Amino acid sequence: MTRTVHCAKLDIDADGLDFAPWPGPLGKRVYEHISRQAWQQWMAHQTMLINEYRLNPLDPEARKFLETQMKSFLFDEGDLAQPEGYVPPEAD
């Protein structure tokens, strides 16, 4: 059964996530306030950050950076990193 949340990122009522995608209080906050659509947008942005900054997701410093960026992206908290010289791929 699908649950509906009011998405903090998109400011719409939409389908919520099936489970908390991150451990701890931040994961609970994401589960309660972020839609599937916004989470998919974050996953694409996170992939770009991992690739452009050549991050190892198992490295504690990289995970800390990604957590900070997740808060910025989903909840507009702090500065959102943009890799120098990054050009997004053109939409097909």
UniProtKB/TrEMBL annotation:
Pfam families per UniProt: Iron_traffic
Alphabetical UniProt keywords: Iron
Any single GO BP term: cellular response to oxidative stress
GO MF: iron ion binding
Transmembrane segments: none
Keyword Iron (UniProt): yes
A GO CC term attached to the entry: cytosol
Keyword set includes Iron: yes
Family per record: Belongs to the Fe(2+)-trafficking protein family.
Role played: Could be a mediator in iron transactions between iron acquisition and iron-requiring processes, such as synthesis and/or repair of Fe-S clusters in biosynthetic enzymes. Necessary to maintain high levels of aconitase under oxidative stress.
Name under which the protein is recorded: Probable Fe(2+)-trafficking protein
Lineage: Bacteria, Pseudomonadati, Pseudomonadota, Gammaproteobacteria, Lysobacterales
